[in-house]
Design a protein that fits this description.
This protein is an alpha+beta fold. It has a domain of about 45 residues. Helix content is about 30%, strand content about 25%. It has a four-stranded mixed beta sheet with strand order 1-2-4-3, covered by helices on one side. The longest helix has 15 residues.
């Protein structure tokens, strides 16, 4: 295991692909970008994890149009619909997206 710290959108482009797991705990508005990077960096069979899937209820509130809520909603939609990923939300605390990358390309 290797812990990498830094601004995600600065660090992610510098990393080689082939990670066993990617855990995303980041600012919410750009979560769709983190999804894309996570999928690029994961190996087939790797786990994509993201906390705050419910974002204090905002992610499931159709009336919440804040940038943060929209970012979480978009991430959850991407995880649910991406054909390379088998994903679910575990309803513990504020929700945890757990996805298994089953394919390298769509």
């Amino acid at each position: 295991m290797r812990l990498i710290e830094g601004s995600a959108l600065d660090v992610l482009p510098t990393l080689p692909p082939g990670f066993d797991a990617v855990f995303i705990d980041a600012d919410k508005e750009p979560l769709p970008k983190y999804f894309d990077w996570g999928m690029k960096l994961l190996r087939r069979g790797g786990l994509l994890l993201c906390d705050n899937a419910f974002f204090h209820g905002a992610a499931v509130d159709p009336n919440d149009r804040s940038a943060n809520a929209l970012g979480v909603q978009a991430f959850n939609e991407l995880a649910a619909r991406d054909p390379r990923l088998v994903a679910t939300i575990i309803p513990v605390r504020d929700g945890l997206v757990v996805g298994l990358k089953t394919k390298d390309s769509a």
